[in-house]
Amino acid sequence: MRKLMISLAAAGAALVVASPAAAQYYSQPQPAPYVYGNGYAGGYGQVRALQARVDRIEWQINRLDRRDRIRDRSADRLRHEADRIEERLHRAARGGLNPYEANDIQNRIARLEQRVQYSLANGYGRRGYGDRDDRWDRDRD
Question: In this structure, which long-range contacts are made by residues 91-97, counting pairs with CB atoms below 8 Å and at least 24 apart in sequence?
Answer without folding.
Answer: 93/36, 93/44, 93/47, 94/36, 95/34, 95/36, 96/33, 96/34, 96/35, 96/36, 96/38, 96/39, 96/40, 96/43, 97/39, 97/40, 97/41, 97/42, 97/43, 97/46, 97/47
